[in-house]
Amino acid sequence: MNSTSTSNLINLQSLIDLSAALNTSDDDAFILNTALLSVMGKLRTFKACALMPDGTQNSWVCITTKGMKLPDESFALIIDTDEMGAIDNLKEHPFFSQWEIELCQSVRSSSANEEDSREFLALLCFGVNLAKQPYTDEERQYISLVGSITANALLNARNMRTLRETGSYLERKNQLLTTLFEINREFTALLEKEEILKFLTLRLMGQLAVSRFSILVKSQDGLSFDIPVNRLKITSDEAEKLICEYKEFGDEALVRCQLVIPNCMLAVPMKTQNEVKGLLLVGEKMNKKPFTVEEQNFLEALGGTAMTALENARLFHEELEKKRLEDELNLARSIQKGLLPQELPSIEGFDITGMSVSSKQIGGDYYDVIPLGNNEWMLVIADVSGKGTPAALLMANTQAALRALAPLELPLPSMVSRINDLLFANTSPDKFVTFFCGKLNTYEQTFTFCNAGHNPPLVRRADGSVERLMEGGLILGIMETLVPYEERTISFACGDVLLCYTDGVSEALNEFHEEYTEERLEVALHASAQEGTAQEIVTAITRDVQAHAGIAPQSDDITMLVLRCNLKS
Questions:
Q1: Each residue of 450-504: pLDDT tens digit?
Q2: Which strand (E) or helix (H) includes residue 128?
Q3: Closest Cα partner for 433 from 472, 475, 491, 402?
Q4: Model-level pTM?
Q5: Cα-to-chain-centroid distance, residue 284
Q6: What HEC string does 52-81 produce?
Q7: Cα–Cα distance between 427 and 421 in angstroms, integer?
Q8: In whole angstroms, what is the distance from residue 197 CA to residue 190 CA?
Q9: Are 450 and 487 a contacting pair, CB within 8 Å?
Q10: Which of 502, 506, 526 is nearest to 515 (CA)?
Q11: Checking phi first, is residue 388 left (phi over 0); if not, alpha (psi -120 to 50) or beta?
Q12: DSSP code of 499?
């Protein structure tokens, strides 16, 4: 193999390596710097620089320089780039001569059609080589190939940045859509005007750092505005002027409000079903920054969503007069469902599950499992007297009191006494709660309980015997605590099962108005507890209750909480 072929092979391999190196980055400076170093190393020159157009005519910026000091800021340089060839000797040019530039290589985009214009990407400039000899044709050819490789790398880098920016833009759009979806979902759940406006205030402050804004809502006659929120402190004169302009110009007047309201930075129409129903006037952001186009779009979407929520609230209250009882029951169901745990915690060594099936009438069944720390858990089941919203609200108060007192590590009689006194002081005499709670200690395998007039839970032992947990005291809310509540502690062994239930189970009626009874419940517990998991026990008892009820409608909520001990002593 002769030296020429060896040199060509080396140059070819170096070009391959250079191409691989350049295409690993989307940084123009890195690409141009690497290209310069490659040529300088091969051709033994110690002066070089890379220039790029800065976007304005005849204006350039130095991206990287070797062995010379060029201006850091943009500078003027008149070059007829359209006439520049692949390799251009511009050493006679005043700019290049002062820096002793011997050879310049234009870096242009390639084009399949020769008639298409080729974008000028950069200019690689090189000083004389170490031997101070003119560049040979082979060296010029090598530099030309480097220029082509560099052009491809710069275009690839641009595409990579574009893809990343597009991805970032799409991600921001996706986040915006997700946020709007969440906002729409939360707005949909709000049925009171004050709550909607408060939520809108929080969103404006949280998403856009806007604290000053006003909301104008069209009156029913469409000729005036109500101002439910006025943090911009619109005066009566300004409001009247805006109303007059609206009467004269219609919806077009909305964009003129910045002329009417001095401290209004942005006006956004609040639409529902493509009709402008109101106006969101927004003041300056707390960070003083201007509103971006995306933020303006967000505001418009937020305003429309808020207006839709306000319209829904208005329609809801109109319908409320016609369907008051039905809506009350729906609200009570929502409250009752919210009281129940969505998922029970996992308790080491024990299998636990709970369920509650609402009847057509809303009651106040409640169960819960509350972690207390130190290997302790509180199990609760309760039933409020009455039906409908009052019962659900009373149970909400009971849950709130329990959740507040449970972490205080009070003795159960003391905790139950406090809840009783609270309910007695805040409810009428005809409202009361049957209540059972117990502390499970998984380390000691003990269960300390207090029963306030609730259906006695059943403990089915592994040997088949059954205990009823009755110790405690009076139903909650009947009278102030005069006689202290009692507690009792039992132990659990492997295979023992605790069944807590409400009277909707034991008193379930069939078509002949016959009750299911506690005796049949005990039989069903025996049949399922020998080998069944907690969930299998609940399922078996539920099916047995349904079999007893037959075609009769469910008369009360059916609620159960089952705990099975799997720990061996």
A1: 999 999 999 999 999 999 999 999 999 999 999 999 999 999 999 999 999 999 9
A2: none
A3: 475
A4: 0.46
A5: 27
A6: EECCCCCEEEEEEEECCCCCCCCEECCCCH
A7: 10
A8: 10
A9: yes
A10: 506
A11: left
A12: E
